[in-house]
Amino acid sequence: MIATLIESGAEVEMLHIHLFQGANAHRMADGFGMVALAHDTRVAGLSGQGFDQRYVNQVLGSSTEVLDSTFTAWAAALVHDQGARTEIALAHDLQNQRYIDGISAQNRAAVEAAIARLGVTAALEDGAQDAMQTAAQARQTLASLNLGGVPQLILEENGHGHVLSISDFYKSPSAVTALAS
After folding, report:
1. Contacts 24+ apart (CB under 8 A), 85-90
2. Is residue 124 scored above 90 in pLDDT?
3. How far is CA 10 from the centre of its chain?
4. pTM of the prediction?
5. What is the pLDDT confidence band of residue 125, given thresholds at 50, 70 and 90?
6. Which phi and psi (to 5°) does residue 66 adopt?
7. Span 42-58, mean pLDDT?
């Protein structure tokens, strides 16, 4: 849906919030794998997003996997200035690695390969400071609209943010193109 919005010509800014870091980085073996599976099942039902058995076995069922978005946030920061098309391409690549191929977000080499495919030659750590700033901006935006969860779709008009129900577009992603006009 977000890719469709970007392709429609709408001006889109993506903000990575660093949702799973530090105290919010959860070990799958501590029960979070089952919580994530329940959420993923719900997402699949709403959106049609597929989740391969390799993901269930190798990521959610791993005794050592920690859900930590540090590397993906750094990667997103490294491509942020290239625009939303590049960011969504990175997101698709990383999501396919995780949800289809069962590759951990903690697999540094896989994240580095994803940014290299987009022409990024900088070290992954070079995105750390920008990632922190982007996350702060995202948290400030969410707080200003009294929002807590992600993802959020916010339409900005005349300097004011209006929250749109992202679930309205799950079954009809092409309807989101009306926002570009």
Report:
1. 85/6, 85/7, 86/118, 87/14, 88/2, 88/3, 88/6, 88/14, 89/118, 90/114, 90/115, 90/118
2. yes
3. 19
4. 0.87
5. very high
6. -120, 130
7. 88
Measured distance CA(118)–CA(104) in Å, rounded: 20
Chain center to CA of 28: 19
Q: Kindly state the tokens that stand for 32.
A: 């979070």
Q: Any idea what DSSP says for residue 67?
A: E
The amino acid occupying position 28 is M
Q: Are 136 and 143 in contact (CB under 8 A)?
A: no
Confirm if 94 and 75 have CB atoms less than 8 A apart. Answer: yes
**pLDDT > 90? residue 48:** no
State the Cα–Cα distance between residues 4 and 132, nearest whole angstrom: 27
Please report, as a single letter, which amino acid is at residue 11.
E
CA distance 117 to 156: 32
- The owner of tokens 């209006």 is 162
| Structural tokens at position 73 | 């946030």
Distances from the Cα of 150 to the Cαs of 8, 79, 116, 166, in angstroms? Answer: 22, 20, 27, 10
The pLDDT tens digits of the residues spanning 104-122 come to 999 999 999 999 999 999 9
pLDDT at 181 over 70: no
